[in-house]
Amino acid sequence: MPETSSPVAERTATPGTAIEPRQLRQLLGCFPTGVAVITTTNADGQPVGLTCNSFSSVSLEPPLVLFSLRKASSLVPAFCASDAFAINILSQRQDALSGRFASSKIADKFEGVAWHVGSLGMPVIEDCLASFECRVHACHDAGDHHVFIGEVKHMSEGCADHALVFYKGAYMQLAESLRKQVIEGKLGTADLDEAYRTLYGRLLRLACEHASEAELDMVESAVDAIEAHGPDDSLAQRIESASRFFSAIAVAGHNAALMLMAQTMTGVLRERMTHVIPVRPRPDLFPLRRKVVLRLRQRDPDGAAGALDELITKLRVDRDGGVVANGFGD
Fold first, then answer.
1. Among 122, 228, 250, 298, whose CB has the most other CB atoms within 10 angstroms?
2. For residues 211 and 292, what is the distance between their CA atoms, to the nearest angstrom?
3. Does 24 have pLDDT greater than 80?
4. Dihedral pair phi/psi, residue 7, rounded to 5°
5. Beta strands 84-89; 115-117: pairing state
6. What pLDDT is recorded for position 57?
7. Residue ranges of the domains in the chain?
8. Number of H helices, E strands in the chain
9. Is the separation of the CB atoms in 93 and 158 below 8 Å?
10. pLDDT tens digits for range 101-119
11. Residue 310 pLDDT level (bands cut at 50, 70, 90)
């Protein structure tokens, strides 16, 4: 067998190598962050705001905090023109607010939301864990973002709840709940299979329509990595390769909402392969993954979704027949 490098090593940036934005975002997601809604008023005095997980403390004396705002955001003019803003830290039970203020389809984010005018005239959302009203101390240009530094002038403490935490593309409460259910065997195999068929079948159809050739190359590269594993490769390497296969399909699908769901399902896959289903080599699955790639290359949505269904059916038959498979590994 030819010598191959570790799938993990292949993804490690080396000096002089260009940083790939998708991988950077994925790795940054390994750092759990709180979720806040940043608010201000626009030129007409109307409240505006957006969901943000880039809030951070800067200094205690003077009391400075910061958040970053994409230059492509429609709210850049409002924040750049305002001399103040408010940071509202969300609790676990305010996840709906996080989604509301992150949506580009909701024109009036404050409709139906309980809020009041704070001491600086900024919109302060009620029932948050904490709120900080800030005067703009500085604004810095930073790549594709503006970094706003604010001096805290007023602050208030709200409900005694747990913070809403974002981790690896999902709310941590949800991710931890799924992890626990997987380990305890509470997620049925049939239900999981159907979830994979539905979610990744749709992503494959979208990929046939929208994926670039480079993105299809990533799917095929993930298949290559799975087939290249030797008998001495670690469980972590095998899990990484299996995850890369489905992650590459999700990226190729070009749908942000479905990609978040896919990231959650990847977490489920990792937990099943680590704690539930023993891993063993499955060369009989190689042709089925190759068929998925082939149908993607041919831009055949029915064929790609059908090939995935064949792969899942093969695994189901093996499980029901008493043969222990390794989920979607090699």
1. 122
2. 14
3. no
4. -55, -35
5. unpaired
6. 85
7. 7-27+169-320, 32-167
8. 11, 12
9. no
10. 988 888 889 999 999 999 9
11. very high
Residues written for the chain: 330
Max distance between CA atoms of the chain, in angstroms, equals 70
Percent residues over pLDDT 90 in the chain: 42
Which CATH number is associated with domain 7-27+169-320? 1.20.120.530
Residue pair 123/39 in contact by the 8 Å Cβ criterion: yes
* The model's pTM: 0.51
Give me the percent of the chain exceeding a pLDDT of 70: 77
230 φ/ψ sector (left φ>0, alpha ψ -120 to 50, else beta): beta
E strands in 158-243: 165-167, 170-171
* pLDDT single digits (tens) 121-159: 999 999 888 899 999 999 998 888 999 999 999 988 876
Q: Would you list the DSSP string of 237-287?
A: HHHHHHHHHHHHHHHHHT-HHHHHHHHHHHHHHHHIIIIIS-----GGGHH
Name the β-bridge partners of 140: 147
Into which CATH architecture does domain 32-167 fall?
Roll (2.30)
Tokens of 62: 């003077």
Q: Which residue has the tokens 């995935």?
A: 308
Nearest to 291 by CA among 233, 228, 219, 238: 219
